[in-house]
Structure formats: C-alpha cells, structure tokens
Amino acid sequence: MSERNQPAPSVGIIGGGQLARMAQQAAIPLGVDLRVFAKSGTESAALVSAGVRLGDERSVGDLTDFAKTCDVLTFDHEHVPQPVLRALVDSGAAVRPGPDALRYAQDKLLMRRRAEELGAPCPRWRELPAGPDAAAELAAFAAETGWPVVLKAARGGYDGKGVWVADGPDSAAEVIRGAAAADVPLLVEERVGFTRELAVQVARSPYGQVAAYPVVETVQRDGICHEVLAPAPGLDDDTAVAAQRLAIDIAHELDVVGMLAVELFETPGGVLVNELAMRPHNSGHWSMDGAVTGQFEQHLRAVLDLPLGSPRTTAPATVMANVLGGTDPDVFSRYIHVMAKDPELKVHFYGKEVRPGRKIGHVTVSGDDHRDLLARARDAAAYLKGDL
Amino acid sequence: MSERNQPAPSVGIIGGGQLARMAQQAAIPLGVDLRVFAKSGTESAALVSAGVRLGDERSVGDLTDFAKTCDVLTFDHEHVPQPVLRALVDSGAAVRPGPDALRYAQDKLLMRRRAEELGAPCPRWRELPAGPDAAAELAAFAAETGWPVVLKAARGGYDGKGVWVADGPDSAAEVIRGAAAADVPLLVEERVGFTRELAVQVARSPYGQVAAYPVVETVQRDGICHEVLAPAPGLDDDTAVAAQRLAIDIAHELDVVGMLAVELFETPGGVLVNELAMRPHNSGHWSMDGAVTGQFEQHLRAVLDLPLGSPRTTAPATVMANVLGGTDPDVFSRYIHVMAKDPELKVHFYGKEVRPGRKIGHVTVSGDDHRDLLARARDAAAYLKGDL
After folding, report:
1. Which of A279, B3, B137, B334 sees the fewest Cβ atoms within 10 Å?
2. pLDDT in tens, B62-98
C-alpha cells in the first residue's frame, strides 16, 4: 500500500482505459483508493491516477503482486483469461465479479446456453461445429430463420472483429474459414427484426443488494454504441419492469458483483437478450450526469460490498452521444464552440490519442425533451469530431 | 509537460488541499491536465493525481519551474505571497486570478478600503494604528458601535487565528498586544446584528464572461462553515438579485478570474460584505451535486478562458454539511450506516488524516424541502464524525 492518511478502502482495477478513468473520478469523492493496473503510463486512466502499476494483464505473477496492494480487484474490461482469474482467486484475492460470473461475459456460447437454462428470452441460435460440418449446420439453421444471419465468435474474435452479418452461404463460408484458421468457435444467431435496441443496468453487491437503473434506448452504428436516450422514450411500464426483472434475475443467477449491463432487442413479441457486460458500460454513461448515483460510483460501492446508491434520475430525460475521433486531432480547439453554444452540455474526454472512428469521449445533456436533447448532443459530438 | 496523447490544456494548481483534489475530479471529464504543486505526497490532492510536483510555495524558483509545465496557474488557497505572485507574472506565467486581484483576498484592510470605494455595503470598520494609540482608537470606535466588536488581522493572522470577538477593552487589549508582538496590522469592525449569513458565488473569465450562482445561506459555527442551504430559503428576489449584482460588480472591478465567493451578512437594512475568497469555496460545494456546472469545473473553465457552464440548479433544494473529524479516525467503518440509511446522500471525503474538529469531507443531498434535507445531511455528518 502507498502511504495513506487513514485506512481507506482500496480497489484495484485491471485495465487503464476510459472505464477505469471514470472510476477514478468516482473514487475521489468516496475517498476510495483506486489503484490502476495498466499496460502503459499513457493509458486513459493512468494519466489521472497516482501510483499506477504497469504490467501484463495475462501474467499471474504481475496480477497477484498487484492484488496484494488492494482490498478488492475489479475490471476495466473482460479480457483477463479464466486461468489467470482463477489463480488470483486461489491466491486469496477478492475478484469482483468473480471468474464464475465473468465467463458468461467472456464466452458467448456459455452465455447463450445459460440464458436459455434460465428461461431468458434469446434470439434463435445454434453452435456451429468445428470442421467441415459447419457450413451444413449453418445452412440448416438459415433454412429455419432465413437470411441474413449473424455469426459470432464465441470468445475474443479475431482481426479485431467478433460479429459478422452473413447475407448468404458464400459470405458465411468466408467467416467460417477465417474462424477455423484462427481456431475460434462460432455460433450463429437469427438476425432479429427489432423495433429498437434497449439496455438495462443493475448493480449487485456480494451481500445480494440490487439497484436497477431505468431501461434506456441505445442507438448503434457500425457495431458501436452511438447514442443513449434515458429513460427509453415511450417504453411501456410492463416492458420496462420485465427488462429490469430479467437483469436482476441474470445478476442473481450468475452471481454478478458490480455493474451488469444487459443489451436487449425490443421486438413486437417482447425483449430478447443480445449481450451481457459485467462492468460499467457505455449504455450507462448517462447516469454520471443524469442519476443520483452514477454507474462508476455504484460499481465501486458494489465491489466493496457497501450499500448501493439511489439510481433515481435527476431529470426527466438525459441523452448521451459518443464522441469519435476525426481527422483533426486538436479536439480542444473545438471546446470553445460547444461550450459557448450549449452551456448545459457536459463533456467527458478520455485523454486518448485521437484516431478516426475511435471513441475519445462522450457528451451528455439533461432536460425535458429527448428530441431536443438528442439534437444538442449530436451537434456537440459532431462538432468535437470535426464534422461540422 | 508529462507525456500526453494530445495537446490537452494544462492547469497548475498551487496547493494540494481538498480544493485541488475536487478540481482534479472536475479536470478528469474535461480532459484538462491538472498539475498539483503540493508540500507533500500525502496532501489531499496529491493522493489522487499523477505527476504531482513537490515544492515550497514561497519559493520563486520552485514555482517558476512549475509554471513552465502549465498553460495557466491557479490556487488551492490564498497564501502565496505577493512578491512571489509578481515574480511569476514577470516570468511570463498566466496567473489566474492575478496578484492585483488576489491582494484583496489576502489583505482585509485593502479589501475594506476598495469595497468602500466601490460603494459596496460593509459593516462599519476602522484601521487600528500600530503602537500605543491602538487602544484609544478602538475605544473611540466602540463608543460609536457598542461592544462587542470584531478584531481582524489584516493579513495572515497568527497562532492560527485571524478573527477575534472582543467583549470589552480588556479582551481587546489582549488581542492588540498579541498582534503587535506578531507584527500583524489589525482592523476593527462592528459586530453586525445579522439575520443570517449568506454567500454568493460568481465565475469570471479573462474574456469578461460572468456566471452567477444562486445566493445560498451559510451556517457558521466556531468560525467554520458548517452547513449550506442552496438556494437560500425564503430569500426575496430583490435581495438575491442585489447580492448577485454586488458579486458581479466586485468581480469586474477587481478583475477577478475564476470563482469569487462573497460572504454576506443579511440584515434588516440589506446585505453587508463580510469576506471575499477568490477560489472555489466551501459555500459552493453544494454545486458539485446540485448544479449543472459545479464550482470546480467552472473555475477550470474560467481560468482557461473557456465559455462558462450553466450555474442552473438541478433540484429545488440542495443542502451541504461539512464532515469534521472526531476522536475515532476510522471514518470508513461508518460508511455502511450512512449509505444504507440514505441512498440519495453524496459523500465527499478529502483523504485527510482525521483530527478532531478538522474538515475531512462534506455531504450533500438534493430534493424539495430544505428542512428535510438539512436533517438528513446533519445526521450523516454527525454519524461520520462519530457523534451518533
């Protein structure tokens, strides 16, 4: 432990990205000693934290050393391998969420199987066998669901990709070849004709306390979350409550500790589970400015087994828009315009190197009318990118 | 400059106390590179910042070296001596607020003279001459105002004190003797029969933009701000607007850059200026949780000459209570109670060593009814201190 003035609870966060950075922002008022385990000193969270530990997150030695300096370990991402997680637990570290929960966020096949067991509504899906039978299995599945279908790498993906939409057997065969070459198991899912995408977040503590945030609408573009409208406009109460219950059940059944995000498709027949994330999530950034307890504070409280904070919204509507990098890296020269134009706008920059298409920050704005707020958030994000 | 991923604006803050710590919390989302100049690595802000510079804040050499790494310098406190401030300006540093403004926050005699020139309403006051005539001058003043009177050290104070209430000539003589021995000039002020104490904060940028926060009620105890009610309950609009205009005029006339707090006495005849502070101030901590733009974000925007954020309140009422240290230093063991009892409460700890009577944090809570919120904030502060 570094020198401290009092016995503050310490949380070690593995990964130095923007989620760890925003966790540091939440740790300051709580007096929680956040310790960042990063790959380099220029990672997003490393730039704003004292006592950053540099190391390799696949190294049991590096992480068990780090764990000795922290009361609790948690995560900026889901990439720490299962054997490393289990070695940490065996070494006596409090790993939250634990490996038994995290594997469902790391492996889409395990997640689908478990979700089905729990009776959670899912898109139709099938595991594809390794080897030459994959194409025939996929053809049989597509004969039931129709084309296009969605192919997903069960774990990790390759070439930076993990989800593909295949229009027909030829494009599917190409994905199957690539996955086989990379030794990555695949599953296939029907392409859901959704009305819109939703997400719901809950926090859960080891004690078992749960806090559910309002269901939000998420707008994806090119597989990236672009905008979030909180709460989801016009969502009927029954669907909202059902989605929150679903997330609470999943958190409970999988023994999740910390924030859980459940990404959903809204369809005429109800909601379907798309993906799970066991950490603060892009769909919850709105809560930093639009709820009594932001998701990063809530995550810290949950992993420390402290009583959870109120997830109540502080405004009728909050909209978040991600800021992507453009071709001009000098984002700060554009501060003047967005701040002068909209004094109510909240800007969150991640301190990252600007590269075209990379998430480098987000903006939020709160008020009464989602349509007005969305226009303002979009305008600010586009301007900060350099598009306007 | 430390390694950065993009040309982020950098603000150097002189002093590593809780105001610098809360400025770091605000700097993270802005992407502002906050650089802390502290006396030791265990100061409040040093615990939560990367690249802390340790040095002596009365050393021109230490501070000019530090200034070279920052776009702008600002302050956690008002203790940097004028000659040091002027040397920094001469070295080319952007010092905000500048020494010409800061001297009015550093020297109560200068402040009273200037406030009078500006026509700002002040308590009756008089400078006491050094030497044997002080007692006679004070007696003449007290003959006009009546006893008790308030004696103030013009600069700095001594023995950790700067304000004394004297009931009569004997206790006054004692203060005069102590001040003479410490070579500290004194002024005497009438003891105002105020209805309550108020404070008003404005932010001002070098460009001249001003944002005024709602007038708040402050409750002092033993010379320390204990509680703040925002906005001041039941304050009539005329008085509120007059107080905001007064603060704006003072900010403009004194060329203040950053946050200015004007502490006021409310009297049946109107408000009187008590003190000025040219930095984020205890009376403005409520704005971190109760306004669109908290005072620390606003201060950073102002000193960087960025457009100011909206000071609009996000709830009808917000109450802040300071958390003082008690005899049991283990404040974190008391987290469970306050968090479980009031999930809407926001706790802010400063990471300081717990000593009886020392400000170690504050709590805020927002809602509709000041009376209810005050009871909740008081309860939490008392519990965290260890009184309940």
Report:
1. B3
2. 999 999 999 999 999 999 999 999 999 999 999 999 9
Alpha-carbon distance of B114 to B177, in angstroms, equals: 27
The rounded distance, in Å, linking the Cα atoms of A12 and A303 is 10
Q: Is A92 left (phi over 0), alpha (psi -120 to 50) or beta?
A: left
Handedness of CA A58, A62, A65, A71 (dihedral sign): negative
Apex B162 CA angle, B157 and B166, nearest 5? 130
Q: For residue A138, give the nearest of A176, A109, A101, A111 by alpha carbon.
A: A176
The phi, psi pair for A383, rounded to 5°, reads -70, -45
Residues A48, B25: C-beta atoms closer than 8 Å: no
Confirm or reject contact between A124 and chain B (CB < 8 A): no
Inter-chain residue contact B293 with A50, CB threshold 8 Å: no
- Residue listed under structure tokens 């109510």: A344
Q: CA of A190, closest CA in chain B: separation in Å?
A: 39
- Residue B2: the pLDDT is 41
* Residue partners of B127: CB distance under 8 A and separation at least 6: B109, B154, B185, B186, B187
A274 is in an annotated binding site: yes
d(CA B14, CA B36): 6
Strand partners, A152: A163, A187
If phi over 0 gives left and psi between -120 and 50 gives alpha, with beta otherwise, what is residue A164?
beta
Q: What ipTM was predicted for this assembly?
A: 0.96
Average pLDDT of span A127-134: 91
Q: Taking CB atoms and an 8 Å cutoff, what residues of chain A touch B303?
A: none
Mean pLDDT over the full length of chain A: 95
CA A91/CA B104 separation, integer angstroms: 59
How many helices and strands in chain B, by DSSP H and E? 12, 17
pLDDT in tens, B329-351: 899 999 999 999 999 999 999 99
Selecting from B307, B332, B339 the residue whose C-beta is nearest the C-beta of A307 gives B339
Length of chain B: 388
How confident is the model over A139-189, as pLDDT tens digits? 999 999 999 999 999 987 666 679 999 999 999 999 999 999 999 999 999
Question: Is A117 known as a binding-site position?
Answer: no
**CA nearest to A340 within chain B:** B307
Give the largest CA-CA distance in chain A. 66
**Could you read off the pLDDT of B180-233 as tens digits, one per residue?**
999 999 999 999 999 999 999 999 999 999 999 999 999 998 878 899 999 999
Percent of chain B with pLDDT over 70: 97
* A191 is known to lie in a ligand binding site: yes
Tokens standing for B169?
């000539």
The verdict on B327 touching A (C-beta cutoff 8 Å) is no
- The helix or strand, by DSSP H or E, that contains position B137, with its residue range, turns out to be helix B134-145
Query: Which residue segments constitute the domains of chain A, with CATH numbers given?
Result: 10-95 (3.40.50.20), 124-190 (3.30.1490.20), 196-385 (3.30.470.20)
Q: What is the pLDDT of residues A331-382, one digit of tens each?
A: 999 999 999 999 999 999 999 999 999 999 999 999 999 999 999 999 999 9
Of the candidates B299, B301, B321, the one whose C-alpha atom is nearest the C-alpha of residue B230 is B321
State the Cα–Cα distance between residues A229 and A77, nearest whole angstrom: 24
Tens of pLDDT, residues A6-23:
679 999 999 999 999 999
Smallest CA–CA separation between A245 and chain B, in Å? 21
